[in-house]
Amino acid sequence: MSYERILTYPKSLLNKGTGFLTDYSYSLNPYTGCSFGCSYCYVRQMPVSLFHEKEWGTWVNIKQGAATLLRKELARAKAKGSVTIFMSSSTDPYQPVEYTAQVTRSLLAVMAEDPPDFLLVQTRSPLVSRDIDLLREMKDRVRVSMTVETDLEEIRRAFTPNAPPIAARLKTLERLAAADISTQATIAPVLPSSTSFAHKLHAVTDRVCIDDFFMGDGSGGKRTKRLGISALYDKLGLPEWYDPSAYRLVYDRLTEVFAPEQVFISQKGFAP
Q1: In whole angstroms, what is the distance from residue 271 CA to residue 124 CA?
Q2: 241 closest CA partner among 197, 189, 199
Q3: Euclidean distance between the first and final Cα of the chain, in Å?
Q4: CA-CA distance, 68 to 57, in Å (whole number)?
Q5: Partners of 86 in the beta sheet?
Q6: Which DSSP string do the residues of 75-135 spell out, in sequence order?
Q7: 43-62: pLDDT as tens digits
Q8: What is the C-alpha separation between 26 and 66, in angstroms, rounded?
Q9: What is the domain-level CATH number for residue 253?
């Protein structure tokens, strides 16, 4: 899928953690916009998307001078106290443009030199494994959270056709763990999956976070409802999966394989 690349020159990068991210001091987004353009993305219902002249998923703002700016902001933030960072809250830090722009890598290089107290890297892209060298320098101060909403490729293609294949994400979790980098698989949102999903995750990580449209979109599911996602479930003949109770099926399957303390629900799973 083609998308427009726009160079921008931000005046700040670190945003105060609020709402769902209140457990973090700051959120950090290397880009604005996301070319993965997932059908259910809650950002589609946020001002950054609603007031943009082009459709979400067709444009990406590339933040110039980001490393220099972060170095200054991080030093100021650390002078005030503990610093925990969530990267990213409204874009994927490893979307395709990162292959060439390398904004995320430049930010990780800054944090490897002067680590925050904790950094969570939220992505669905195998590209994160490129930066194993920098992630390892942060040791136990970083966790990579890999979105794996389902283990069924036909479901992935229906909901997120521009996102990386599931098998590649599972392989990436395996590579990160082999490099002694803390990981978790994030089933967010819960999509239809098979009975063997939990076993596939257990083979590559020791921590899982589970979230859905109703707990995790910041509005009790109202943003997602406005996107009309329920119609896609109906089209697939799986309406029972679009329900506030659907996550329990996946949770029960997970706790048959993982220890209870390894499975987290919604906001607690994203916390430092």
Answers
A1: 18
A2: 189
A3: 34
A4: 27
A5: 27, 120
A6: HHHHHHS--EEEE-SSS-TTSTTHHHH-HHHHHHHHHHHS--SEEEEEE--GGGGGGHHHH
A7: 787 777 777 878 888 999 99
A8: 15
A9: 3.80.30.30
State the DSSP H helix or E strand holding residue 74, giving kind and residue range, or none if neither: helix 66-80
Number of neighbours of residue 241 by Cβ within 10 angstroms: 19
Q: How confident is the model at residue 102 (pLDDT cuts 50, 70, 90)?
A: very high
How many Cβ atoms are within 10 Å of 44's Cβ, its own excluded?
A: 20
Q: What type of residue sits at position 196?
A: S
pLDDT of residue 225: 76
Structural domain including 184 reads: 4-270
What are the structure tokens assigned to 266, written together?
């919604």
pLDDT at position 133: 98
Q: How many domains does the chain have?
A: 1
Whole-structure pTM value: 0.94
Question: What pLDDT was estimated at residue 43?
Answer: 76
Task: Say if CB 178 and CB 224 are below 8 A apart.
Answer: no
| Per-residue pLDDT reduced to its tens digit, 248-266 | 999 999 999 999 999 999 9
Tokens of 140: 């136990």
Q: Centre a 10 Å sphere on the Cβ of residue 236 and count the other Cβ atoms it contains.
A: 16
Residue among 173, 169, 170, 149 at smallest CA distance from 159:
149
**How do residues 171-219 score in pLDDT, each as one tens digit?**
999 999 999 999 999 999 999 999 999 999 999 999 999 999 888 656 6
- In whole angstroms, what is the distance from residue 32 CA to residue 11 CA? 14
Cα–Cα dist 200/174, whole Å: 11
Let me know: does 45 contact 102? Beta carbons within 8 Å. no
Question: Tell me, what's the pLDDT at 218?
Answer: 61
In the predicted model, what is the mean pLDDT of the chain? Answer: 94
